[in-house]
Amino acid sequence: MDNTIIHRLQISGPAGTSTYELPMGTTVLGRRDADLVLDDQLVSRRHAQIVCADDGCTLTDTKSSNGTKVNGIRLKEHDPHPLNPGDVIEIGAFLLTYEMEEVAAEAAVVPIPEPIPEPEPEPALPEPPLPEPVAVSEPPPKPSRKSRAETKVNGEPPKGQPPVLPIPEPEAEPAYTPPPGLSLTDSRYLQYLPGIYHTDFMKRFLALFESIYAPIEWTVDNFDLFLHPATAPADFLPWLANWFDLTFDQSWDEAKRRTILAEAHQIYARRGTRWALSRILEIYTGLIPEIDDTGESLEPFTFTVTLPVRESEVNATLITPLINAHKPAHTSYTLRYK
User: Fold this and answer.
1) Residue 48 contacts by C-beta under 8 Å, 6 or more apart in sequence?
2) CA distance 258 to 160
3) Alpha carbon distance 129, 127 (integer Å)
4) In what helix (H) or strand (E) does residue 260 lie, and over which residues does it extend?
5) Which of 148-152, 220-224, 309-313 has maximum average pLDDT?
6) CA distances (Å), 183 to each of 176, 180, 186, 194, 199, in order?
7) Whole-angstrom distance, CA of residue 131 vs CA of residue 114
8) Among 63, 114, 184, 205, which residue is least crowded by beta carbons within 10 Å?
9) Separation of alpha carbons 97 and 115, rounded Å
């Protein structure tokens, strides 16, 4: 019988690694409304598509915002690119390795169902005996005042009875404290109204609206703090990195992300130079790499990068894209470890 071709993607991303088996036909890759969802801010809603047939698969960039790369080369929009086994697709913070496997088809063996034996008739159950008459006893006498007084001696319940646990009283909720600059009984909006409206009710009434609009005014008035790497919120840093075509590694802490953003204008202006490549690797690994581009044994347009760490101490799958993004154009390199 004919063999079966299986196409799959080995996915490495911020959440870990996984495997996705590509079906025959078209598979849409994107952040939303896609067959294969890649949750990252640098991934467009419908970023790219893969069309698979018996003879192989092709990858097409569907006019994405940040582009699609195959083996470090950015694809043209709406230009199908054939995929070969081992090709690495780079979409945002995700690396997808294409694999193709040929599996021999086996003839399906349909088992012959065995006949189901007929159930044996259940034996008749004996009739239950009639209940015996029960003598009705008189109710116990009510305890006297003296017996009730003896039920608790020295604050303890009598023997044979469970202790009575006290019911805890509900804790009082803490009083609401408004944020600095706001009040529950006063509002600065009152100054814009005539004196006839300067009442206690109107102060409390306007304080409701000020609690809604004041934080918005604070955000607009201080929006310049969002644009500085030292004062921007942590969730705002990936958006600033998108200005410089940078992608954060998930292993970087907040201090390392702010450091690379503070120097991004220098690294971006000197991209393709030895200094920029050395600095971006130093921020990532915390150590200064050794870059040799003048050795006598080197071929033209080649260089070597030696990291003073072991390969197991860093994420090698993310170092390669960093070097490809910041190395000089039309050059090749050799990556070495300690």
Assistant:
1) 28, 29, 30, 59, 60, 61, 62, 64, 68, 91
2) 69
3) 6
4) helix 254-262
5) 220-224
6) 11, 8, 5, 21, 15
7) 48
8) 114
9) 50
SS3 50: strand
Burial of 318 (0-12, 13-18, 19+ CB in 10 A): middle
Question: Which band of pLDDT confidence, cut at 50, 70 and 90, is reported for residue 107?
Answer: very low
What one-character DSSP code corresponds to residue 235?
Answer: G
48 three-class SS? strand
Using CA atoms in the order 245, 247, 253, 256, what is the torsion angle rounded to 10 degrees?
-30
Q: What gap in Å lies between CA 17 and CA 15, rounded to an integer?
A: 7
Q: Distance between CA 305 and CA 323 in Å, rounded?
A: 9
Q: For residue 134, how many other CB atoms are within 10 A of its CB? A: 6
Eight-class DSSP state of 44: -
Three-state DSSP state, 322:
helix
- 44 closest CA partner among 55, 34, 58: 34
Contact 29, 38 (CB under 8 A): yes
DSSP assignment, residue 218?
H
Q: Residue 99: what are its φ and ψ, rounded to 5°? A: -130, 145
Cα(204)–Cα(150) distance, integer angstroms: 59
Q: Chain centroid to CA 157: how far?
A: 57
Helices and strands (H and E) in the chain: how many: 7, 14
Picking from 251, 317, 269, 254, the residue whose alpha carbon sits closest to that of residue 95 is 317
Predicted pLDDT of residue 186: 86
| Three-state DSSP class for residue 186 | coil
- CA dihedral sign, ordered 300, 301, 302, 307: positive
Other C-beta atoms lying within 10 Å of the C-beta of residue 92: 22
Alpha-carbon distance of 280 to 246, in angstroms, equals 11
**pLDDT value of position 205:** 92
Beta carbons within 10 angstroms of residue 11's beta carbon? 19
SS3 242: helix
